[in-house]
Amino acid sequence: MASELFTVNGKRKYLTIEEIDRFLKVANEQERPELRTFCLVLTYTGCRPAEALALTSESIDLSNKTIVLRTLKQGDKIKYRAIPIPDSILNILELVHGLRKAQRMKRKPAPLFPWKYCQAYKLIKQIMKSAMIEGEQATPKGLRHGFGIRAAEKTRNPRLVQKWLGHASLENTLIYMDAIGQEERKAALNMWT
To answer: What's the CATH superfamily of 2-190?
Structure first.
């Protein structure tokens, strides 16, 4: 199962925590504030880029401190999932996008991020390149996989990880539970000390 996190040549498809930190550092240096928040949303929710591009001010639940995403890849079903995010990220989203003011407006909410998928993908790839992240993992999906692995390591709760990633099947989520992470490395090293 964990093979889905690696290419046929054994190259990993997920970002490590160090790569995520470098990605966020470069993202934070971007001139456009909405690009910075787009990167934060992808990193802190593990969502697909298309799910992030569909977000509006109404998608951010300030009371519950969650981002509510419409889950893709569910066939004809319309399904939403709420992902808790840190207060610091909520504050940045509020500052950049004026969420409270936008939520009080009576008109149809506009998307938080102004790009089409292809443009958003290219922007993420450029940030990855600037962060010196290269290889199969240097993609938005690499961020998603990195989120899944971190969530699995920290929560040890496959159902919660399944919910956050919007997987229809638990089988899709179990690849993250089996992933080689820091904890597995520590256990392996402890065998020899």
So the answer is: Intergrase catalytic core (1.10.443.10)
Query: What confidence tens digit (pLDDT) does each residue in 72-98 have?
Result: 876 678 899 999 999 999 999 999 999
Q: How far is CA 138 from CA 20, 52, 128, 141, 190, in A?
A: 10, 18, 6, 8, 31
Query: What is the enclosing helix (H) or strand (E) of 153?
Result: helix 140-155
The C-alpha atoms of residue 187 and residue 154 are separated, in whole angstroms, by: 15
Q: Which of 109, 115, 140 is nearest to 34 (CA)?
A: 115
CA distance 176 to 14: 10
The domain locations on the chain are 2-190
pTM exceeding 0.85: yes
Q: How many Å separate Cα 40 from the centre of its chain?
A: 8
d(CA 175, CA 173): 5
Give me the count of residues in the chain.
193
- CA-nearest of 33, 59, 29, 57 to 47 is 59
